[in-house]
Q: What sequence folds into this?
């Protein structure tokens, strides 16, 4: 392996050589801030994923370290994130009950499979597969997931039972258990939620009015969730609310991340394979858009295939250290970036901070009410819910609107896996439908020029016996027969026709189906006494055509430009053979 | 409903008004010839489909009549065909044993579902769906089906058991029963097969040498299969070979097609739905290519959506009259056309001829050996086997070669349904892969001209601070992020960059994902102090962009031509803002 290949696959070799004191200071400051922010987030997303709270902290340690070694983004912070945690709960919830050892093993296995898939895609350079999630599908999916997540956490705020992975299940579950509502939990949960909403909007201006500088006010506002956790934990401890029905986190082991093994049971793997694939792709897409946005600000370059390897390694790390599937999160990465992280080493220091927390802080969260964590989640995910995508898609194109609507509705009604799959399938079908009926314009010459434009939109000159068609699409199997039908139709409608010219300005590709359709068109026109010509054929398309017999059999000519075709066919009229009919 | 709408949906109204004596004569002559040809073909394809022999004749009567009313092709002959019969055997064979009442009911139900699907596709104008079967996939599928069919009939020629729906099953079945071989059957079967091969190649020249005119010799050669049937039936009858182990057709009811009802059992329907969909689409594709080839010779027009309705009605007819799935067949249609059929009425007269045969001729085929029918099938389908598609695809494009190879291998190994599905999926994936990594050329000006060409292929002039990229594909979700990556890469590599121009000559479409990628590119370049421009944007794409905020946010300009862009950016250098980094 050459040095540059090594650097490509181990980006750490590149930045570690130039690491200096200034980068170190920036990284440590960023790490302290991110660590404080990550503790409540990690606990909350563990709850969302149906895992014990410490798993959230474990899932933030090894993955951060491994991403720092293999990843290319300098600001991305990897760990549990909302949507992937929801997908984990949906996938693992089908297999085992939350809180059991089987559940934890399935979550480890899911992280392992997801890591293996990401590594495989990265090594095979298949990162482009993520592109099949279109922007509207992702936006619709994130919005619908945000609603599902917020709805699924309501039960913790109300202090009742009622699980579910679709909106209908969740609402039905809440309704069925509404009688068991715990008013103290509601009071705690609702006030925490209200406080956190205020933190988001009003705390920074408030701190500024108290006289803090902008940077300190900003940092202060970020500690809001920590404040909420400390305050509600103290309240529960002081008034012994745990004994009065408020669900608390309870005993959390005081330890570094344990060494764990994913299961290799083939039945478990076959059940988790599709969810793992979806989690990998969704996680990758979320992560890479964050990474690219942050990298562009500093003109750094993100290598998508290497990112797959970084995220794959991170998930492998989660699988072997008591975690669950992870990816690069938006909020934590932005904090990392804003806090001045210079290199992936910042992530390593964050990992160190979290390891200290796992060792020494866990006894302190015994009395932390689950309602507080649920409130943290609700406030975080509601910022993901954004229905403006519906309006934008509607205005821009109906087909994009169809894809985003299908994604949102199916995610809410049938859950995350059906929703995102339906979104991808809808996008592909809509695209195939559009390209299967390409725009084909009859064109004529704009008088006094060499330009040829659509006869329906412009005043142009045409000859009665020559039909010139401009096909606005590459020719391939979904539209090959459409072209045959269209040309048969035009030819049947014009008995005086002697020549058809196909103008190939926008034809970037011809496949074998299209070639055979062109051959059929050529033969059928010949049988009807009409010649077929091509004009403005691009180099690569011409190369392709020359590998077949089509050009030998073509009854007409290939003209370099449409102008030449028109001149030639106008003067050639007399020499033209009679129709055979 | 207006008159023209009526004529569109009932094409019979159009041709029946102009029906005259000359058309009548032509039609009757064609009908007699086609009837004679259809009797052995119908019996043989019933055997292939696992149905009793009379079902083949029934399946040729009502469908022909209904197609005559609803179809648009004037020469298409509808009835049992080889590939669809094979697919029927594969689908129904999974549900019941051949020869049982359940088997016949399942076949009726399959025809009913297939008819319903075709009608629905036709009424919803969804005929374009058939285009997703690319030419190489169809060619590969037909070739592999031909091999499967021939192999499946070998057991009748050898006089042994051994069913199967994949090549491996068939070969294993033959091998296991090889001990039971019946030598008289082999003698009959092999000599009939040899005779029929000779009929195909040598009979017409032979009849010409005997002094017959070309038309009579042609007709005489077409009666070859009838001759084989008469001769072998007489031999079996005369020497009582039925008692010596030669499998014969046996008692065939002497009746008009019975009135039958498909089953509406939901479990049966759910088992048959996917096979019915595949049969519908394969049948439609086969039928429409025959219809279009024949129609083009007379400059007649085929309406694909109306063809779906015609074939749907034909299959409905088969379902209610003791038949099984049908479609427009190549060999019978060509005979119909060559024999001079003028209108769909020829089909109606053929139906009458077959009804007479069903009433009066069935006792005569009691002693007809199954080996003769198998020989008829083998000779017919081996003409479908054509491996030259592999070579043509290989030469023309590797991706088409991948699709055709996958189709052939998977059809042979896993059967018809897996094979054709895999072919479609492979074609779509290959297309998506290709468009997901479009050709993006860095272009520069060809000295002394207004032309801009690829810097790698031509000697061109460029400016160090301006990067001009030509994207050779519509911009949509699979390639949206690729474009982002490419531009980020180019920008990261050129620190002196101040302007990026995207040349949109071959961009026919922009979807919301691509728009958001363009917005991201614009923002990221802006953050890096680089302006983004567009040039040569087509009208429809410009319309689309104007429905968004993109043009307001664009840091640069939209130039009518690349030439204008280059001139403007060259003179504008001094006025350019400083990079922000």
A:
């Amino acid at each position: 392996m050459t040095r540059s290949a090594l650097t490509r696959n181990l980006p750490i070799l590149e930045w570690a050589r130039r690491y200096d004191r200034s980068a170190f200071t920036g990284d440590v400051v960023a790490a302290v801030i991110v660590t404080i922010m990550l503790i409540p987030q990690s606990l909350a997303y563990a709850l969302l994923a149906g895992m014990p709270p410490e798993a959230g902290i474990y899932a933030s340690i090894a993955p951060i370290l491994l991403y720092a070694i293999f990843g290319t983004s300098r600001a991305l912070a990897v760990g549990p994130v909302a949507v992937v945690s929801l997908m984990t709960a949906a996938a693992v919830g089908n297999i085992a009950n939350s809180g059991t050892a089987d559940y934890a093993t399935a979550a480890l296995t899911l992280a392992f499979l997801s890591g293996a898939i990401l590594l495989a895609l990265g090594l095979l350079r298949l990162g482009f597969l993520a592109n099949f999630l279109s922007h509207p599908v992702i936006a619709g999916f994130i919005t619908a997931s945000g609603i599902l997540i917020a709805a699924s956490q309501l039960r913790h705020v109300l202090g009742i039972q009622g699980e579910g992975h679709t909106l209908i299940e969740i609402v039905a579950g809440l309704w069925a258990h509404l009688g068991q509502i715990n008013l103290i939990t509601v009071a705690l949960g609702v006030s925490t939620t209200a406080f956190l909403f205020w933190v988001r909007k009003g705390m920074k201006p408030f701190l500024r009015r108290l006289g803090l500088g902008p940077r300190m006010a900003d940092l202060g506002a970020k500690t809001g969730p920590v404040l909420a956790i400390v305050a509600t934990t103290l309240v529960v401890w002081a008034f012994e609310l745990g004994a009065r029905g408020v669900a608390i986190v309870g005993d959390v082991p005081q330890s570094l991340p344990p060494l764990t093994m994913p299961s290799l049971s083939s039945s478990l793997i076959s059940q988790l394979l599709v969810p793992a694939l979806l989690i990998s792709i969704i996680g990758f897409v979320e992560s890479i858009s964050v990474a690219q946005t942050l990298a562009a600000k500093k003109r750094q370059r993100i290598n998508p295939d290497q990112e797959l390897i970084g995220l794959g390694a991170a998930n492998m790390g989660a699988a072997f250290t008591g975690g669950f599937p992870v990816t690069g999160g938006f909020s934590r990465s932005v904090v990392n970036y804003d806090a001045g992280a210079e290199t992936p080493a910042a992530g390593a220091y964050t990992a160190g901070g979290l390891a200290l927390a796992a060792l020494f802080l866990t006894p302190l969260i015994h009395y932390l009410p689950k309602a507080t964590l649920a409130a943290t989640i609700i406030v975080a995910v509601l910022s993901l819910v954004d229905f403006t995508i519906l309006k934008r898609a509607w205005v821009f194109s109906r087909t994009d609107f169809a894809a985003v609507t299908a994604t949102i509705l199916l995610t809410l009604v049938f859950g995350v896996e059906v929703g995102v799959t339906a979104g991808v399938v809808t996008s592909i079908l809509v695209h195939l439908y559009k390209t299967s009926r390409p725009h084909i314009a009859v064109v004529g010459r704009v008088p006094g020029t060499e330009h040829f434009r659509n006869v329906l939109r412009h005043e142009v000159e045409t000859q009665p016996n020559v039909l010139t068609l401009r096909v606005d699409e590459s020719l391939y199997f979904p539209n090959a027969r459409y072209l045959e039908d269209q040309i048969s139709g035009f030819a049947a409608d014009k008995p005086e026709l002697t020549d058809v010219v196909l103008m190939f300005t926008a034809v970037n590709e011809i496949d074998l189906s299209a070639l055979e359709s062109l051959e059929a068109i050529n033969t059928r026109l010949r049988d009807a006494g009409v010649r077929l010509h091509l004009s403005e054929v691009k180099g690569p398309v011409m190369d392709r055509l020359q590998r077949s017999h089509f050009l030998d059999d073509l009854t007409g000519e290939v003209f370099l430009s449409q102008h030449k075709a028109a001149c030639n066919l106008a003067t050639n009229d007399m020499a033209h053979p009679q129709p055979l009919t």
In short: Residues 573-581 of chain B have pLDDT under 50 and may be disordered. Residues 23-399 of chain B form one domain. Residues 266-297 of chain B form the longest helix (32 residues).
